[in-house]
User: Fold this.
Amino acid sequence: VDEFLGVPSADVSTMPLGDELTVFDASTGTALVLNRTAADVFALADGRTPVSEAVTVLARAYGVEREDIAAEVADTVGALRAAGVLVSPHR
Amino acid sequence: VVELEFETAGVRVHVGCLDPDVAALVSQVAAPMLATRPGEPRVTLTLGSRPEETPERAAARIVSSVDRAALARTPCLVVHAAVLAGPLGCVVLPARSGAGKSTLAGAAMQAGLTLFSDEAACFGTPLGRLTPHPRPLGLSGRSRRLLGLDSSDGSADEEAVAPSLLGQAAGPESRADCVVIAMLDRRPGGSAGLDELRPVDAMPALLSGCLNASATGAEGWAPADAWRYLSRLAHGPRVVRLRYDCPHEAALLLREQLVGG
Assistant:
């Protein structure tokens, strides 16, 4: 299991939209709209940040307990990977 | 052959109509799309009647051909949405087929707004500038009755209704800016109301409603360009949810947004 967030796909372009982010994947021609949590996860995805650290950083930023957002962050990472927006840095 | 010149969605379409009666019907039902200035056509069609086809059916077929040809060749980014204009600008109502766009557009015309389109928001430059595509409104029997139009044959089928029967439509040279994007939320009961939304809330409907963005790129927009345009666009206008049951009530709310105090 990859414990790191990963990195944005090279095919992905982004544009901020308020607190959210729109993402376009040129390889598939699909666009996504990321909510605030997903946008923040995406912003932390530098290839070196583990998922657990992202949970800590975001819990602090949102002023909530780690366990309150751990599942949402994990689900978000899974969804971004499934959509091809986040990929392994070793790919 | 009766020559008809249309200018709609920013595209000039020349039609050679072989039947004068059908040409007269086309001119009547699609009057707002007729060109009002000289120019060179980008598309030329020659269309005649088919055997056993009524003049009304033939006219509808010709108008549909003009509609398709214009949207296939327009330089605008086309989003599946109704567009109504008032003195302050346009409201764009993005929605899938059958969501009530045309009925609401008809009610808004009856309330005094100007039809840009019941089906296709044609975005161009500068960002958010809309070009009219006021094709005849596609209205079901129920919608026609709701709008008080004659439905003498009692048909429930969708029919093309001339905009002039409902109010005013924008001419080919009109342009106006999008100032409101309203997401339709039709639900039974309750009075009409507006809820403020975030720009991002409009994005799924705008992106999924793109009608001329394709990866092949032969005609229309490249998907990346469409995404970039719509992402920038969403920052500008107010984005609201329009809750309503009665289209006439909703139309009055829309008029308030576009006419002002």
Observations:
- DSSP finds three helices and five strands in chain A.
- The longest strand of chain A covers residues 12-17.
- The two ends of chain A are 15 Å apart (CA to CA).
- Chain A has a mean pLDDT of 89.
